[in-house]
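Progress narrative, Year 2. Work on Phosphotransferase family protein from Acinetobacter baumannii advanced from sequence curation to structure prediction during this period.
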Amino acid sequence: INVPSFKYVRKWLNDNIPQDSTTCIIHNDWRFDNVILDPKHPTEVIGVLDWEMATLGDPLMDLGSALAYWVEPTDNMIFRSTRRQPTHLKGMFSRKEVVDYYLQKTGLEPQNWTFYEVFGVFRLAVIAQQIYYRYYHKQTRNPAFKDFWIVIHALHIRALKLIAQQKLQESEFAQQSLQKIQGILRR
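Result:
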């Protein structure tokens, strides 16, 4: 089957599991099509559907998983063409704005937000792989699943980019710190 192995992403996730996290009941499938909004106040959630995957866990796992489905206007064509939620519309928060708002409201301070974001993308890729596997082996016939291998590759690239961006930021921070230390030592 023409899908990437995600071996590097799995290893990175395993090596970067946050040590300190909060535990609570998490929905485990948090996204727009699982909430009911008040018709008179469309920014108020009045119901949450599909609790069958709920469990105890880190609340940031729910946020990371939800943002894997979050498509922004600047995302590539693959994500824009497969989106299932209205997150690309004018006035909607960006993924960064969602994270900032959530962290401000909850008071949570993740050591490594990238872990949760990469985990969400990885989780969505696993779901897409399961669907594509069933299509490939003729266990389902929905033609919408025919090109899921493309989405899986795009999710793999997105996960790798998130990891690379974090490594670049860490590298830049290390360089700046080294320059400061060298400056102090020259005095």
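Residues 44 and 108 are 22 Å apart (CA to CA). The first strand starts at residue 24 and ends at 26.
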